[in-house]
């Protein structure tokens, strides 16, 4: 590639238009050019967009001449920590009622972030450290106001303070609203079972199951009705960190790290305050296996099999590994 070729693409105006196919292509190609397979360098942007025939491409400088519409520059390493590998095994533990609802609707339920039960969902940090966070933001805003091009150098201090406070309030309002407009479906990334999650989601003498799938199959199974972004949750010590503006929906307290969560996130899917979740069509064939809770009553397996048959779910059913017998 040549510097001038790169300059041309840098100068192409990005349209910001992302089809969900382009979003997925960008995700799966990640650090590879989708046209020639070259490893993309970490020190410069890649390009997501469309060829003249409308097909989606995600390319480096190697193949940028093929772009006829630039959707956006992509700095792929920003997200490299949270991207699930296509073959990541995912589990979802649930009680029987939720399982039946999923089969009946042929849909996966995405809960509104503030109804997931963790008060830290979408939080920036600890309340005890809010003043520290606020001061950091105010300083940033003061500097931005002071350095507006062409503004008189003697801007009144009290005007700067008032404007900075207003910008902070507006930002906080927008951040809280975003939590109420974000939806998540939570999965557990693990090659095997988790006794702790069985106890949590299918406690003793209740009927419960876990379904398993692979990340790429789940992602494809959700179709293109909504733009769903998947990522590994990061477990953070909020005593020492503040969550990032864009990443905070993927950050949780380190005390929850046993969840090993991968979540799918939908932003701005529904605007009404009354809506507690979104039902997203799911191709049930992406379910690889249904595992029966080790704490289920003995009659449950028969009911489960009958229910699956009536909703035409053909995935194999297996007992929990936790019931395996030891020898000495
Ligand atoms: Zn290439």
Kindly describe this structure.
The structure is a single chain. This protein has 3 domains: 3-79, no CATH class; 89-121 and 181-323, no CATH class; 127-179, no CATH class. Strands 4, 5, 6, 7, 8, 11, 12, 13 and 14 form a 9-stranded mixed beta sheet that branches. Strands 2-1-3 form a 3-stranded antiparallel beta sheet. With 328 residues, it is an alpha+beta fold. The protein contains 8 helices and 14 strands. α4 packs across α5 (157-180). The model is unreliable at 1-5 (pLDDT under 50). It has helices spanning 3-11, 20-29, 96-105, 130-146, 157-180, 195-201, 215-221, 300-310, and strands at residues 46-50, 56-59, 69-74, 89-95, 107-112, 182-189, 208-214, 229-232, 234-236, 251-253, 261-267, 277-281, 289-292, 317-319. The relative contact order is 0.15. α8 (300-310) links the parallel β13 (289-292) and β14 (317-319). The chain is globular. The protein binds zinc ion (ZN). Zinc ion binds next to loops.
Condensed summary:
The protein is of the alpha+beta class.
Spatial separation of the terminal alpha carbons: 65 Å
Number of strands: 14
Q: Overall pLDDT, averaged?
A: 88
- Strand fraction: 15-25%
Catalogue the unreliable spans. 1-5
The shape, in one word, is globular
Helix content: 25-40%
Biggest sheet details: 9 strands, mixed
One letter per element, helices H and strands E, the order comes to HHEEEEHEHHEHEHEEEEEEHE
In this entry the ligands are:
zinc ion
Number of domains: 3
Radius of gyration: 24 Å
Structural class: alpha+beta
Helix count, DSSP H or I runs of 4 or more residues = 8
């Amino acid at each position: 590639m040549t510097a001038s070729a790169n300059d041309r693409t840098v100068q192409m105006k990005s349209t910001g238009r992302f089809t969900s196919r382009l979003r997925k292509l960008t995700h799966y190609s990640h650090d590879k050019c989708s046209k020639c397979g070259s490893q993309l360098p970490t020190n410069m942007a890649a390009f997501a967009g469309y060829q003249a025939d409308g097909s989606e491409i995600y390319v480096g400088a190697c193949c940028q001449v093929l772009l006829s519409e630039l959707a956006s520059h992509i700095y792929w390493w920003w997200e490299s920590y949270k991207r699930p590998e296509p073959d990541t095994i995912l589990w979802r533990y649930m009680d029987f009622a939720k399982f039946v609802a999923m089969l009946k609707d042929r849909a996966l339920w995405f809960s509104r972030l503030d109804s997931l039960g963790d008060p830290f969902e979408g939080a920036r940090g600890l309340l005890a450290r809010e003043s520290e966070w606020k001061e950091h933001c105010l300083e940033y805003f003061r500097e931005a106001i002071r350095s507006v091009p062409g503004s008189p150098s003697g801007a009144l201090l009290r005007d700067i303070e008032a404007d900075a406070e207003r910008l902070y309030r507006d930002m906080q309002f927008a951040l809280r609203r975003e939590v109420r407009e974000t939806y998540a479906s939570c999965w557990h990334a693990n090659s095997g079972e988790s006794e702790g999650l069985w106890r949590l989601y299918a406690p003793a003498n209740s009927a419960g199951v876990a379904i398993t799938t692979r990340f790429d199959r789940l992602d494809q199974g959700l179709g293109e009705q909504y733009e769903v972004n998947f990522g590994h949750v990061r477990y953070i010590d909020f005593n020492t960190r503040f969550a990032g503006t864009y990443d905070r929906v993927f950050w949780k307290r380190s005390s929850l790290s046993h969840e090993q969560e991968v979540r799918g996130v939908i932003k701005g899917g529904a605007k009404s305050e009354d809506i507690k979740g979104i039902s997203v069509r799911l191709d049930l064939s992406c379910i690889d296996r249904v595992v029966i809770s080790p704490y289920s009553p003995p009659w449950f397996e028969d009911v489960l099999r009958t229910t699956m048959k009536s909703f035409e779910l053909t995935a194999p059913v297996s007992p929990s590994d936790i019931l395996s017998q030891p020898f000495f």
